[in-house]
């Protein structure tokens, strides 16, 4: 079938399944490479910049770069990352016995961001075809293309953006695309280097492709080689650590939730969000994952990013920020992109940055406390900021909020939000007790007890034998699985065991956990989404902490089996259609994988693992068994 774009004839091809993609990146942006060696997503120069390849959310006419055998009968026979590396190899086989590999990488960025592709002959002689469709501004802007001097490449410009392609292969323009037909023999290689630069500057310098591939491979092998071993799961953890590193914006230390936007939580639905930003809700779990995996430098960079992002007036703290701490993340929709498998709208920006979410106070205070406990030094000005945030939390903890899942319906008194308000006060008290920090500790102790009593009175339903999603609700929420981990109550408390049982009853389907029942929740959106993978890791953690070690390991192994062939996880999974859903790769999923692996290995499989010991207050019980 043929389609049209800006007067050009192009092939209309449905993007691959989410799990068909691999990730490459330069620690400032990232590209997704399909099983067919088509690069269908790349934002330049940053993770949150406009995409120049947006076929993932539309078709080839919205930008892609494919290099593959010219014979349509050729098939991908193997692909994989080089061991311990982010260099991706995709090997094709042809009907006549030929074989060729596409080697893809983005060298860690210096002054210039480069995307390197090397076509390597493995067997026989293979006719190849390359097709480059550049469309800046999320598939909208067709660039003006000129040849470089000497005819060894092209320069494409649209407004502020410039991309230069250099290759010895012949290039020609065809229907607003750049096309190349060439052949490669066994032992021969043909390089392609795509470089980005601002359009007002000279063209980026040429790059030796072979040396860039080897240098990139060495960089990642050296970095991943420092990963702390965790038994049989070391390779899975190492791949997750590499993925997190690739999604870290190196200049600031901020970790994006995912390098993509608007991959749907239900195909054809509108739960499509922009995840190319940094969330405070991930603070503690990210810090612990990096420290457990043996990367204190990255953990310190994340801690510094947290502090810079949160600095300012405490009443203006946000739940998410830009890569450098930007605060204005206005949400708008891209009406010229149809969305992944017609899942619209395609959103840029995230309106959730304006929401009140009380849990971020606890996440931030807990992360900074955990950093201090694990030897990462903290300055006095940083403590002054924390005290100011505690003052603000004292004013607002009793208010309804939008919750950890950023619902777009009415604010409610979400139980997990209150628990994290309690955690903020608990960590403040512990900083005084453990590290001699100054502050009104008696007032913090009193408020800690008050919040704890309020949660046990209003957030626990004795008839259900479980904590509930929100005050007055009879529904459960997967975030309640974190109550023993943050030390709110010991794992052996019957209320915790009852909550785990309620989650199993209401949210566990086909071995995976849903966040909450969207069909019964007032979250401002139509119902329908997949199972949330991070929540499934939380259930494995809860099993481990309550002594159900065998069940924890079975669930963890099941979750590992859901990774794609490259070891990557998305945000959600559809157990019926057996496919990934949501933005990809998802940092929260890989963070969960790392933390659960180390917990199950025995390093920290204990009550209150985020605190290292139980930090909760069991509370009093009245004659009806209700805490208060």
Based on the model shown, name its key terms:
Beta-galactosidase, Chain A, domain 5, 628 residues, eight-stranded antiparallel β-sheet, Glycosyltransferase, 22% strand
Could you describe the 3D structure shown?
With 628 residues, the chain is α+β, with helices and mostly antiparallel strands. It has 2 domains: 2-202, Distorted Sandwich (Beta-galactosidase, Chain A, domain 5); 224-601, Glycosyltransferase (Alpha/alpha barrel). The chain is 29% helix and 22% strand. The chain is built from 13 helices and 31 strands. Strands 3, 4, 5, 6, 7, 12, 16 and 17 form an 8-stranded antiparallel β-sheet that branches. An 8-stranded antiparallel β-sheet has the order 8-9-10-11-18-15-14-13, covered by helices on one side. A 3-stranded antiparallel β-sheet has the order 29-30-31. Strand 14 (153-158) and strand 15 (161-166) form a beta hairpin. The longest helix has 21 residues, at 415-435. The chain starts with a strand and ends in a 27-residue tail after the last helix. Mean pLDDT is 91; it is low at 1-12 and 618-628.
User: In the CATH scheme, what's the topology name of the largest domain?
Assistant: Glycosyltransferase
Residue share in helices? 25-40%
Q: Name the shape in a single word.
A: elongated
Question: What's the gyration radius in Å?
Answer: 25 Å
Mean pLDDT: 91
As for the number of domains, it is 2
Can you identify the CATH class of the largest domain? Mainly Alpha
